[in-house]
Amino acid sequence: MNETVVSAAYDLFLVLLPVLAAALGQWMFRMAGTERIKRIKHEMDTKYSWAWDAVKATEQRWWEKAGSEKYRIASEALAEIAQKNKIPITGEEIRVLIESAVKAMKNEMKTSE
């Protein structure tokens, strides 16, 4: 009888082991995905903050320059900040971040008037 119980428990263990391993794998995959999403969001928030600072500083320092010149200065500043912090950033990201910061600042000025 004991041999039958041990054999049945062993068989059950062999059946449940792959199920438990698959469940654990799925859980780990979800957790890794969540952490990756959090890391990407933090990186984008950081880049946007830098873009905001670059645009604000450019507007304050070079207020008399044309928009295209201010865009170039802010873009170079943002690229330099990212490089200094060893965060990869593409030209397209710089363009979008600068444009977004400029638009947000314009909206902020409209609402404060």
Secondary-structure map with pairings?
Blueprint: H1 2-61, H2 67-84, H3 91-112
Helix pairs in contact: 1-2, 1-3, 2-3
Concise overview:
By secondary structure, this protein is an all-alpha fold. The protein is 88% helix and 0% strand.
Structural class: mainly alpha
The helix content, as a percent range, equals over 70%
Largest sheet: none
Helical segment count: 3
- Per DSSP, what share of the residues sits in E-state strands of 2 or more residues? under 5%
- Quaternary structure of the protein: single chain
Sketch the topology as an H/E string, one letter per element.
HHH
Mean pLDDT: 85
Instruction: Determine Rg (CA atoms, Å).
Output: 27 Å
Low-confidence stretches: none
Secondary structure tally: strands: 0
Q: How far is the first residue's CA from the last residue's CA?
A: 87 Å
Give the overall shape, derived from the CA principal axes: rod-shaped
In words, what does this structure look like?
This protein is mainly alpha-helical. It is built from 3 helices and no strands. The chain is rod-shaped. The mean pLDDT is 85.
Tags for this model:
mainly alpha; 88% helix
